[in-house]
Design brief:
With about 375 residues, the protein is an alpha/beta fold. Helix content is about 35%, strand content about 20%. The chain binds 2-succinylbenzoate and magnesium ion.
Length: about 375
């Protein structure tokens, strides 16, 4: 298949509720969408880079630059038969995993449509439904957090993650434990602590969180291994894991007892499959994270989780954040906390043209 044309767009979707983490508040979702055109078929890829480098160094601007000037030209350079072939070509560019993932995942969508199979099928997934989980941002106070978690549990979510930061950790987990004694929450710090906070983090053990996600520096592995020796709660890494090689090292040194896999953070599905297989071989629990994606990006996460072994992660209903989904049929969470894996070709849903146009801030056409 020869890629004939690539569209790059920036989209902006107003958010119904702000999403607050230890690194900032999001009130509007801005992201890049890559559309590949080949032989009358299209493939979509949502980029998880934010407009601000508060989570990881990439931004919407760096991703647009690297896609336009380096990655898309590599996609034009020769025909592709499999997405893995494109992934191998993109490896010549160092870093920029989010930019690479948007292009590589669009190639997976394109190839799945060419073959008339779902993304899940092309990836080797077998589940027809996946478990939904939810990530709850920092709230006004502990009472508001408890109410919010109650609301999400009532909506059927099978796993709840809450955001923490210094000063908003012990009391929050205590309040949750008091109200929901059986609930094992995931506590995500987004790198808000240092190893000097080890004693404070050890005090969180008392509230029996399921795991502590990325407590230390966004690029660290070794301090996390040191922290793991000083707390009982298992550590799950997010930001620090941007390749399968890094995941292997983190497991080897005892820095990651659990792995959060975001395909958009590791360069795409080829690397995601390697991480999935690695975790299965090492017996390390694995779940799929989220990046407040639109329905398009959420669907990629849904298809990935059709593979065996994924525990409930961050895949919640896109309408928690956005008034209308960009895809039809929309991504829906059932009352018992499940999401159907679409069976149609590619992502298995249509990107609705008028909604896409309304959300588009700018659009650029790239040709060989
Ligand atoms: O650290 O997991 C994170 C969202 C944006 C950036 C970082 C993270 C998150 C989430 C997932 O917590 C939220 C979601 O996708 O619903
Ligand atoms: Mg996280």
């Amino acid at each position: 298949m020869r890629i004939e044309r690539v569209e790059l767009r920036e989209l902006a979707l107003p958010m119904r509720q702000p999403f607050e983490t230890s690194f900032g508040v999001a009130r509007e979702k801005r992201f890049l969408l890559v559309t590949l055109h080949a032989g009358g078929l299209t493939g979509f890829g949502e980029c998880v880079a934010d407009h601000h480098p508060g989570y990881l160094p990439e931004t919407l601007g760096t991703a647009a630059h690297v896609l336009r000037d380096f990655l898309v030209p590599l996609a034009f350079a020769a025909p592709i038969t499999t997405p893995q072939e494109l992934a191998a070509r993109l490896a010549r560019v160092r870093g920029h995993e989010m930019a690479k993932a948007a292009l590589e995942m669009a190639a997976w969508d394109l190839c799945a449509r060419r073959d008339g199979v779902s993304l899940a099928r092309l990836l080797g997934g077998t589940r027809e439904r996946i478990a939904a989980g939810v990530s709850v941002g920092l709230q006004r106070d502990d009472a508001a957090l408890v109410d919010k978690v109650a609301e999400e549990l009532a909506a059927g979510y099978q796993r709840v993650k809450v955001k923490i930061k210094p000063g908003r950790d012990e009391s929050a987990l205590r309040a949750l434990k008091r109200r929901f004694p059986e609930l094992r929450v995931v506590a995500d710090a987004n790198s808000a602590y240092t190893l000097a906070d080890a004693e404070r983090l050890a005090r969180l053990d008392a509230f029996e969180p399921a795991m502590l996600e990325q407590p230390l520096h966004w690029d660290d592995v070794l301090d996390h291994a040191a922290l793991a020796k000083r707390i009982r709660t298992p550590i799950c890494l997010d930001e620090s894991l941007r390749s399968a090689a890094r995941v292997a090292q983190a497991i080897d040194v005892g820095a990651a007892a659990v792995v959060n896999l975001k395909p958009g953070r590791v360069g795409g599905f080829t690397e995601s499959l390697a991480i999935h297989d690695l975790c299965a071989a090492r017996g390390v629990p694995l779940w799929c994270g989220g990046m407040v994606e639109s329905g398009i990006g959420r669907l990629f996460n849904v298809h990935l989780q059709a593979l065996p072994g994924f525990e409930p992660g961050d895949t919640s209903d896109p309408r928690r954040y956005f008034d209308e989904d960009l895809v039809d049929p929309p991504v829906v969470v059932s009352a018992d906390g499940l999401i159907d894996v679409p069976a149609g070709p590619g992502i298995g849903a249509t990107v609705v043209g008028p909604r896409l146009e309304r959300a588009t801030r700018w659009r650029e056409e790239l040709t060989p």
